[in-house]
Design goal:
- Strand 18 and strand 19 form a beta hairpin.
- The protein has two domains: 263 residues, 2-Layer Sandwich (Antithrombin, Chain I, domain 2), CATH 3.30.497.10; 126 residues, Alpha-1-antitrypsin, domain 1.
- The protein is of the alpha+beta class.
- Strands 4, 9, 10, 11, 12, 13, 17, 18 and 19 form a nine-stranded mixed beta sheet that branches. Strands 1, 3, 5, 7, 8, 14, 15 and 16 form an eight-stranded mixed beta sheet that branches. It has a two-stranded antiparallel ribbon with strand order 2-6.
- Helices cover 22% and strands 32% of the residues.
- It holds the Pfam family Serpin.
Length: 448
């Protein structure tokens, strides 16, 4: 008898062919839930499950002692994903990736948990409180994600983050894990038939809705091995505090890393006030604030330098110097961006470099038994992030969904400063209250 043939009220242990999939992004938890056992499918519950008597915790920024460490860790994660992508423009969401790993950590044990804690910059309640503070700060700007899909940007800044766990009909997941997701991420729970097109349709619909249509479907494919999907999405839409004027957008030359040149439309910003900073290694940085809730830090490296080679320390230096700088009159030339793509993060080299090798299917010590089963029953098999980024005269739209697939074992200021981003540069979009990195883009060739 296969697991799908068992009685619907009988909990069962994952077999070596069962697969768990996760997809990113939200934040955190406050009470350590200790409920034991596994929750089987109960037809009386219908299509939706709920963590009983569990509400998401709220943590103030001032009460999250590990927040700076978690922000620094997210910067490292975001830059690592940029480094793994050699496309003309590499875009990632550090926020989405970090939160996906934080959700995974709630079901990890042993060395797998230790490695995830190291990658996330904090452990236990300190990690949960940091992510809770981050999510609470973003939720001040929550709204209808459909606003990001409209032609014009919303009048008020939008930062929408959504999370849920989708459980295959008949599969048992530990109550403690479901409670942790509700407590830490506010994640609801949905039941679906994940082996066929009906389950895939449910996953696709949720992704499209919670990214405002900027991302059309889930990267997860339904199959007979699929048992759990963690979905988390983030969407951002905001106007510049001082918009660029369309009349100042002109075709200009952009010099690529190899010295060749392309012509791209660049927005012009004349004599407006902006914070500027000189950084180590010949990099320079400029801060362009949005109308509320977020700001964009743009880092221009020396000629011939790949912007994805920036370090977390350099980003921290930029953040500190720009926050302390007195804005001055500045002329800016910045390319228009329109990017949609998928970043494959599943290579062992990428995850090993992040210290996450113990979660992979070829690792002998993979332990995700906090989700279901025993140590070694589940392991990370695929990791992908879908990202959309649109930068125009009015402002910015961006969305991301990260998915983790788990298989069985296995200085003086000039009167007017001119900065032209006419060679490869790094764009970072950050939440204003926490400095939390929402999106990164290493723009190597905006013409492609």
């Amino acid at each position: 008898m296969s697991p799908r043939d068992e009685a619907p009220d009988a909990p069962y242990k994952p077999s070596p062919s069962w697969r768990v999939i996760a997809a990113t992004a939200a934040a955190l938890s406050v009470l350590a839930m200790t409920a034991c056992g596994a929750r089987p499918y109960d037809p009386a519950r219908g299509g939706t499950l709920a963590a009983k008597d569990v509400t998401m915790r709220t943590v103030a920024i001032a009460d999250a002692s590990s927040l700076p460490k978690v922000v620094a860790a997210a910067r490292t994660l975001g830059l690592a994903t940029l480094g793994s992508d050699t496309d003309p423009t590499a875009v990632s969401s550090p926020s989405s990736f970090a939160v996906a790993l934080a959700m995974l950590a709630e079901g990890a044990k042993g060395k797998t948990l230790s490695d995830l804690d190291s990658a996330l910059g904090a452990s236990g309640e300190d990690r949960r409180d940091a992510f809770a503070a981050i999510l609470s700060a973003m939720r001040k700007y929550d709204g209808d994600p459909a606003l990001a899909g409209k032609d014009s940007l919303p009048d008020s800044a939008l930062i929408h983050q959504a999370d849920r766990v989708v459980i295959d009909t008949g599969f048992a997941v530990n109550d403690s894990y479901l409670n942790a997701l509700a407590d830490g991420f506010g994640a609801n729970m949905q039941q679906a038939e994940l082996s066929d097109a009906s389950g895939k349709k449910i996953l696709d619909s949720w992704v499209k809705k919670n990214t405002g249509g900027l991302i059309k479907q889930s990267a997860i494919e339904a199959n007979d091995s699929l048992r759990v999907v963690l979905q988390s999405a983030i969407v951002f839409a905001a106007k510049w505090a001082v918009p660029f004027l369309e009349r100042d957008t002109t075709d200009r030359t952009f010099t690529l890393l190899d010295g060749s040149k392309v012509t791209v439309p660049m927005m012009g910003w004349n004599d407006e006030s902006a914070a500027y900073a000189d950084l180590t290694g010949g990099w320079v940085a400029l801060r362009l604030p949005y109308s509320e809730g977020a700001y964009a830090d743009l880092l221009l490296p020396p000629k011939g330098t790949d912007p994805a080679t920036a370090t977390a320390d350099l980003l921290a230096q930029a953040a500190d110097k720009l926050a302390a700088a007195t804005p001055g009159p500045t002329k800016v030339a910045l390319p228009i961006l329109d990017f949609t793509g998928t970043v494959d993060l599943s290579s062992p080299q990428t995850l090993q470099a992040l210290g996450l090798g113990s979660a992979l299917c070829d690792a002998p010590d993979a332990d995700l038994s906090g989700i279901a089963g025993s140590p070694g029953d589940l392991c990370v098999q695929q990791v992908a992030q879908q990202v959309a980024l649109h930068v125009s005269e009015d402002g910015t739209k961006a969305a991301a969904v990260t998915e983790l697939g788990m298989d069985a074992a296995g200085a003086a200021v000039d009167p007017v400063r001119t900065i032209e981003f006419d060679r490869p540069y790094l764009l970072t979009i950050n939440q204003a209250d926490t400095g939390w990195p929402l999106f990164y883009a290493a723009v190597r060739n905006p013409a492609v």
